[in-house]
Design brief:
Blueprint: E1 9-10, E2 17-21, E3 24-32, H1 39-47, H2 50-62, E4 69-75, E5 85-92, E6 95-98, H3 107-120, E7 126-132, E8 141-144, E9 150-168, H4 173-179, H5 182-198, E10 203-208, H6 214-230, H7 239-252, E11 253-260, E12 263-273, E13 276-284, H8 293-307, E14 312-314, H9 321-324, E15 329-339, H10 342-347, H11 349-374, H12 378-394
């Protein structure tokens, strides 16, 4: 292979590669076993996705860069340009696995990255992007290199694999409240009024991530564990996930907590990335199930996000009725494989079969949730709800704050 990883070295034996994007000169650099200091801020500005910054956060927090490649294409300008790219990846056998997820990548950016990798690493036959926004078209197309050379059609396959449930936030809390359904507004008012009556000194507070201590995080996660146990499910939030959560909170997080009677009753752990707020964990003390404190805590956090100028509120995977009521909409995320040659694609039968099976399970799961929302009452709803629960027990929860290995 052309590149033998050596610590703290960039791909600069002949200087940075140069080319043109939209008529503007840019340079390409490849950092090996290294994440440059500017990576985290640039990822936030380029993609605004929690899962795009997570690999950088983990590498920096753990001071562990072994095996990580960071590709950067930058235009000489004071601010990031739409043609700029920063992608972190690992090598696995003859494949490249991109670590950044959740973001929108346009086709020219994907082609630029793939062209660079395939040119610099002749033994690589496949490049995988996971959980990115759908890219169209996905059919093979001829592509042109930065130097104007026309290359043969590159083959790409794409499968839906997970989802992000997103609320587009209006300009004010008042507008958001008016947009909610009549039944939802009535339910929230009822739950909030009852909580105010029954919890002495009820308050909802926003705590910045640097002030969130480990004990508070543990308490909210324990609420999550207790609620999942009530449903016969095992929470994905183990000790490793808790450690990752704390790292995110320290860098770009915040917590919204409901306190009553001198103790914590419910909490939301969230992470702000650009204009987007991600609700990582939303849980309440099961003692207060009858008050609906989980819904109340989420609702108050949404209102605070609007006040803070956020444009989108992410509720992670699972388009459940409680999330639909908040005006959240499902946004599918796809796994994409890009192949150097057609025969490389034909040789990837095992990978294609696996991703096709994951896509089928995801689509079935989505269909079940949609049917449950369309028919919320009666025997059919009960059967659909039971099937959904069984499916979610058997499949990994989408978008948990745990790094996925290729």
């Amino acid at each position: 292979m052309t590149l033998d990883p050596t610590p703290q070295e960039t791909m600069s034996s002949n200087g940075p590669e140069e080319g043109f994007a939209h008529g503007v000169r840019y340079e390409e650099l490849l950092y090996r076993n290294q994440v440059p200091e500017f990576a985290l801020d640039l990822l936030c500005k380029l993609y605004g996705s929690l899962y795009s910054i997570q690999p950088a956060v983990q590498a920096i927090s753990n001071n562990d860069y072994q095996g990580i490649f960071t590709y950067v294409r930058r235009i000489s300008a004071p601010a990031p340009d739409s043609s700029d790219i920063l992608l972190m990846f690992r090598l696995k056998d003859r494949s490249v696995y991109v670590l950044n997820e959740g973001m929108q990548l346009d086709l020219p950016c994907i082609e630029a990255f793939c062209s660079y990798v395939f040119a610099q690493m002749p033994n690589i036959t496949q490049i995988d992007f996971h959980a990115i926004a759908p890219v169209a078209p996905v059919a093979p197309t001829a592509h042109v290199s930065a130097h104007g050379t026309l290359h043969a059609a590159r083959h790409r396959l794409s499968w839906p694999c997970t989802e992000d449930i997103v609320i587009d936030l209006p300009e004010s809390p008042e507008v958001y409240l008016k947009q909610l359904g009549k039944a939802t507004r009535k339910s929230i008012r009822k739950q909030l009024s009852r909580a105010l009556r029954e919890l002495p000194d009820f308050s909802h507070q926003i705590i910045s991530g640097t002030r969130v201590d480990d004990a508070l995080v543990s308490q909210i996660i324990n609420f999550n564990h207790a609620r999942m146990a009530q449903q016969g499910r095992i929470s994905a939030l183990d000790e490793k996930a808790q450690s990752d959560l704390i790292c995110l909170l320290r860098l770009r997080g915040e917590a919204g907590v409901i306190v009553g009677g001198g103790k914590l009753c419910a909490g939301t752990l969230a992470c702000r990335v650009g204009d987007d707020l991600y609700s990582l964990v939303n849980a309440h003390d099961p003692t207060f199930d009858y008050l609906g404190l989980g819904n109340v805590c989420r609702h108050l956090m949404i209102l605070e996000a609007i006040k803070a100028g956020a444009r989108r509120f992410h509720l992670m995977g699972g388009n459940l009725p409680a999330k639909r009521a908040t005006l959240a909409v499902r946004q599918p995320r796809h796994h994409m494989s890009v192949y150097r040659k057609r025969w490389h694609m034909l040789m990837d039968i095992r990978g294609i079969t696996r991703h096709a099976a994951i896509a089928a399970l995801y689509q079935l799961q989505s269909t079940v949730e949609d049917h449950q929302a369309a028919a919320p009452d009666g025997l059919i709803s009960y059967l659909v709800s039971t099937l959904r629960l069984l499916m979610r027990r058997r499949s990994a929860p989408p978008h948990t704050p745990i790094a996925r290995a290729p």
